[in-house]
Amino acid sequence: MSKNSVKYLLFSLPLIVLLIFDIIMLSLAATAEEPPKYSTGGVVMLDPNATDERTSEGPGSSPGVTVAGSIGAVVTASAASLDEKNHDSAQTTVTYSVDTTWKLTIPDSITVGDTAGGKVEASDVVIEKGKQFKVTVSSNGEWKVSGNGQSIEYDLKVDDSSGALINGGTVLTLDAGTQSGEATLKASLKNADDGKYSTGGTAYEDTLTFTITDGTEG
Length: 218
What we know:
Order of helices and strands: HEEEEEEEEEEE
Number of strands: 11
Mean pLDDT: 78
Number of domains: 2
Shape: elongated
Largest sheet: 8 strands, mixed
Radius of gyration: 29 Å
């Protein structure tokens, strides 16, 4: 082999190694699995006593309600021992478990007459196939804001819908496999004539309570 051939080989070798490395990394990226979209309905086969860790900051002025749980596919094998006296057959159990998880954010407050309204946002929703994630709302003051011994009725609507919500009315619904969604709540005076009066320097208030179901109830 000539000196020029040796020099060319030494010059080309790092480029060849780099090219092989890039091909391997692209192959690994192409085969990477997406995170699971569905839970296994709370059935934890590896640990039947496992439970979700649920934390809540409460309704009303709360910035959100959060349910936290681990997401992941778990594979394990049962112990089996074979030797020269026991080698005919053995069994291994493969199990799979994904917890139900989601996050819901509700507005700090909603102002009557504000056309921007307040957003209710669901994210990272992982529930069992065939189930539904649902958010409902109720008014503690029977859809009245109160202050100074006075009460004024108001309507609360979802996005641009024509119908006002009632207690237990649906704000947001997501089918299993849909991992995020949002809705805007807008409040307006039920009787336009109430807008002719001041509130005497006091902010009239009501409290909304949000309820979440994710298919794990009952």
